[in-house]
Amino acid sequence: MDLLSKKITFRHALAQWYAKAQRPLPWRTQPSLYRTVVSELMAQQTQIKTMLPYFERWMRRFPNFTALAEASSEDVLKHWEGLGYYSRARNLHKLAQQYIAAESKPRTQAAWQALPGIGPYTSAAISSIALGEAAAVVDGNVVRILARLNDDARVFKNNGEAVKAFTTTADALLDTANPGQHNQAMMELGATLCLKHKPLCTVCPVATFCAAKRNGTQDARPKIERKASIKIEINRAWVLQGDKLLLHRIAENSSQLAGQYELPTLEAVSAKTSKRRLLASRSRAITHRRIKEHIYQTKPKRTLDHSIEWIAVRDLPRITLSGPHRRWINELMSMHNSVAGTQ
């Protein structure tokens, strides 16, 4: 028999495991519609262990839709600092404002999907977990589980194509009596056992249903073509004069990191690498981009672009910096203070 013919026993095995093995995450131990919404947007592009301290800090400052809706955009971005993909914070802020203003509150997947930053997956998660609607979630974790359960050897061009391909199966497998618990169990299984690399098949509660495990092909499922990595190198300037640091403020209409600060590029301050002292080199990855940034100690030209600003060191904690730049500035300030203390 195929998986769908065994769906009742599959659901039962999954539910029993989830009841015992689920992680005590704060939006589960203290569930609410608002906490579900915040956790789902935070979890986009971010691992749970990374987002947990940010979630707790966020809930202390913005405990409900009203508090978030009434906050300034600067305050919202400041409390998101370090999580990256800041469009999520802006969308969450707009969502709260629209939710508070709405006479008829969204109760269905379709209604939630009309709000800022909410796509098919997030709307299904919110409506099923918080509102009990029978809507199946399909993300990378669920795709991986379903591809392995059916030992599906199809090759997908990207994640979006794979999600579409497995949505029908996910809908058919959904426990419509307990959709929220079923969806969370599927996501939990993918996050903790049915891992992308080296899945923990020996302790998987639904291993007996898994065709890929029987065939020894679990490491090869699903087959999704990945974008080729792009290598990028950026030269940054470290200009500290007295108690002020030179920073670049990203334009408000920028598609990424709008209004935030970062170390300026050498080009922005008209400096050349050959004549400057290299202080540090740091690497990071954003999706398929591999970025290496070199930070040089230098002096700026006399006339600077309006986006280049002198910021007092004492004000650094108050402004919103991108996560990596916050870390780098803290490191370099510590180095500077250590050197200054020995002189």
From TrEMBL:
Protein name as it appears in the record: A/G-specific adenine glycosylase
Coiled coil, from the record: none
Domain of life where this protein originates: Bacteria
Keyword Iron-sulfur: yes
Family named by the database record: Belongs to the Nth/MutY family.
Function per UniProt: Adenine glycosylase active on G-A mispairs. MutY also corrects error-prone DNA synthesis past GO lesions which are due to the oxidatively damaged form of guanine: 7,8-dihydro-8-oxoguanine (8-oxo-dGTP).
HhH-GPD domain span: 42-192
UniProt keyword Transmembrane present: no
EC number from the UniProt entry: 3.2.2.-
Entry-linked InterPro entries: DNA_glycosylase, Endouclease-III_FeS-bd_BS, HhH-GPD_domain, HhH_base_excis_C, MIG/MutY
